[in-house]
Amino acid sequence: MERPVTPARPHHKLTEDGRRVREVLSYSRRGSRFTPRQAEAWAAHQERWVIPDEAVDRPGFSLEQWFGRRAPLVVEIGSGVGEATAPLAAARPAHDVLAFEVWRPGVADTLWKLAEAGADNVRLCGVDAVWSMEHLLGEGDVEELWTFFPDPWRKTRHHKRRLVSPEFARLAASRLRPGAVWRLATDWADYAEQMLEVLDAEPLLEGGVVERWSERPVTRFERKGVEAGRTITDLCYRRR
């Protein structure tokens, strides 16, 4: 039996006449220039801890091969510079943490933070997280999902690019095992309202606004939000 063809990843979709399809994504790719410290961290740890984009296209791709074991899986979408990723992963050595981040300098920053924290249980991936959740993960594969301070896409015309949508909530809920949790945080009130509306409407999820998760480190995004006078909203939903 032939292996099904995996659908093209974002940025790889073309029309029949070869033109690139314009896609609505929840992120934009920024510059990729490294500082000396980032370059050093990349050279030292990239081969072990970063999953190359092209690896997901190879037949038989398996996360277990990249982690070297089978363990409960935590997924973080938008790990930034690893301020939360490194300490949270270091505190969970029995879990594997798959962190999605498209900004390569942020990945490099994360690498040295992981090394300092002694967190060898993280693998970073720069492939679109929505596509990866759909095509690389199966139903019930995820023990915990973290979405801390996703891009708010503040302009109304850009709200369609926000990650937390009914379609993504349906997908994410299907990847969570029964009883698993999805933790979110944002410093934008209208995005918090949207998250509540979307997640409350997803029949596989139950939860809402909660007290700040004490284990979540204060990141620069949170500090900037507080300094600007914005309220930080934490949400937690559990898969029914």
Automatic annotation (TrEMBL):
Gene3D superfamilies: Vaccinia Virus protein VP39. Substrate binds at residues 155, 187, 219-222. Pfam families: Methyltransf_4. Pathway: tRNA modification; N(7)-methylguanine-tRNA biosynthesis. SUPFAM superfamilies: S-adenosyl-L-methionine-dependent methyltransferases (SSF53335). S-adenosyl-L-methionine binds at residues 76, 101, 128, 151. InterPro entries: SAM-dependent_MTases_sf, tRNA_(Gua-N-7)_MeTrfase_Trmb, tRNA_methyltr_TrmB_bact. Its EC number is 2.1.1.33. It comes from the Bacteria. It catalyses: guanosine(46) in tRNA + S-adenosyl-L-methionine = N(7)-methylguanosine(46) in tRNA + S-adenosyl-L-homocysteine. One of its GO terms (molecular function) is tRNA (guanine(46)-N7)-methyltransferase activity. CDD domains: AdoMet_MTases. HAMAP family: tRNA_methyltr_TrmB (MF_01057). Catalyzes the formation of N(7)-methylguanine at position 46 (m7G46) in tRNA. Belongs to the class I-like SAM-binding methyltransferase superfamily. TrmB family. This is tRNA (guanine-N(7)-)-methyltransferase. It comes from Nocardioides deserti. The lineage of its organism: Bacteria, Bacillati, Actinomycetota, Actinomycetes, Propionibacteriales.
